[in-house]
Automatic annotation (TrEMBL):
Residues 9-111 form the FAD-binding FR-type domain. InterPro entries: 2Fe-2S_ferredoxin-like_sf (IPR036010), 2Fe-2S_ferredoxin-type (IPR001041), 2Fe2S_fd_BS (IPR006058), Beta-grasp_dom_sf (IPR012675), Cbr1-like_FAD-bd_dom (IPR008333), FAD-bd_FR_type (IPR017927), FNR_nucleotide-bd (IPR039261), MRET (IPR050415). It comes from Teichococcus wenyumeiae. GO terms for molecular function: 2 iron, 2 sulfur cluster binding; metal ion binding; oxidoreductase activity. This is Oxidoreductase. It comes from the Bacteria. The lineage of its organism: Bacteria, Pseudomonadati, Pseudomonadota, Alphaproteobacteria, Acetobacterales. PANTHER family: CARNITINE MONOOXYGENASE REDUCTASE SUBUNIT, NADH OXIDOREDUCTASE HCR. Pfam families: FAD_binding_6 (PF00970), Fer2 (PF00111). Keywords: 2Fe-2S, Flavoprotein, Iron, Iron-sulfur, Metal-binding, Oxidoreductase.
Amino acid sequence: MLHAPEADAELMTLRVTRAEPAADGIQLFELRHPQGADLPPFTPGAHLSVRVPSGAMRNYSLCNDPHERDRYVIAVKREEGGRGGSVGLIDGTPAGASLDVSAPRNLFELDLRAPEYIFVAGGIGITPILAMIRYLQAEGGKPFRLFYLTRAASGTAFCDEIAAPGFADADAVVIHHDEGDPEKAYDLWPVFEEPTKAHIYCCGPRPLMDAVRDMTGHWPEQAVHFEDFGSDLVRPRADDAPFAVKLGPDGDPLEVPVGTTILEVLRAHGRKLPSSCESGTCGTCRTRYLSGEVDHRDMALTPAERKSALMICVSRAKSDTLVLDL
């Protein structure tokens, strides 16, 4: 389990030097130090935690070449059905604005020992994979294949760059649009039918990652890697309902509405609590509870740990009330 430090202790304020569309519904942001200083280094697959205008923290993959020290580049998909982080960031952050961001972290590390790579990107999942490819190209280029799967050409970020001559050998890149029709989905089975010495890196929507996981069950476990930042963990669900939390047995009940997290409610009532990823993956906001039935939605706690703790950035309650040990 990963335990990140409190986010506020390590945030740095960077200048937005570019804010422009990368595709329909996707905004590119370039971030630089306001005094032009070098930025902390990052490795292929790394991400930043960004404080969005609402005050929440959201994770976004770095997509530029990790050899670059003068800038960070992220691409943000507009999630109309999400909790407002991406919408607020895109609508409220023009070029010239400032953003508070964490130092880069990497939960999707590229294994540099692999002799070759197979990359599978679904939609905005291209961002960490693009950084990996740029790194490999700058280092002299181990062989790779890229399968970039999206709904439509208009919403395919970095499409022109990836499709351009010189980006890779013609047979190394597949860009496929299914137009939202399952019958037109790209068939990846021939890619994975026979295990090779390649390492597989997949980033994208949950259905894509589940499909790749099913198709690679006969590959060595250490050769198959996934990343989604817990995006499905933070998205409201159709059966979500409000509930109450109490800080200790004698605390006043605080309502947690649908679309709002326990962490956000506690912050609104003046409690400054540690957090980092706010997507249920890092473990920073782990909190003990005394009673109530938890709807655990994190990717950090073991089954044994879930008997006494929860991640207040994503988890909710199945009971009417949760009593927290705070």
